[in-house]
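Notebook entry, structure prediction.
Reason for the run: the old model in the group folder had no record of what sequence produced it. Starting over properly, with the input documented here first.
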Amino acid sequence: MKTPLIETRALTKSFGGVHAVEDVSITLMQGEVVALLGHNGAGKSTLIKMLAGVVSADRGDILVKGTRADIKSPRDSQALGIETIHQTLALADNLDAISNLFLGREKTRRFGFLDQEAMEHSVRETLARMKLRIPSLHTVVRAMSGGQRQAVAIARALHFNANVLIMDEPTAALGPEETKKVGMLIRELADQGIGIFLISHDIHDVFELSDRITVMKSGQVVATCATASVTKDEVLEMIILGRQPTRFLDATA
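New structure, fully documented this time:
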């Protein structure tokens, strides 16, 4: 058995009397895309926030490459190779791709001057290695298309050696062509060994891009299954009713 990039064991988090996440155990393997599905309030966001270090678990364990990890801050998460790409992308619209990649982590020369040449060279290496395509590194982000903005956000995460990406609604508000390009990019990253948690409300994207699906409801895992083994109707049944498809239950009876 290969060691998962990420494994959670009975992860639990409550806010007051509300169990946001309860005894959640999931895995993410190298080069795998796992879709996390569920209505608002299902527990997806809280689970991801624990992996990202935004909130701490009340109990349970997070293992990174088989070793128990103590994630108490986003810095801890990033140091373990986990990067979150939020739906808003958190990019500085008035800066170009190079400045966004190194924002807060700029390379400098003697006397504190920015080393623009070194940063540009480093960015081009990252883009080439990950087969990311941005027409001009010197174009301000606000002038880029949605797909190009996604590429900048992904490149920023991968430049600092992330091996796990948490992608929150990566194709939201994109047109069909841009959605297709981002989808191709996600599969390319997986082919290169990056593990991806994909949060999406677009069931078509999920079936197109994911290897496995984990459905959550009321803070608990309803089921985890190979994407190829279920239908869209069965996944919707799990999301809405919070139970496994009838044929799954019959098979275990």
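Summary: Residues 176-191 form the longest helix (16 residues).
The old model has been moved to the deprecated folder.
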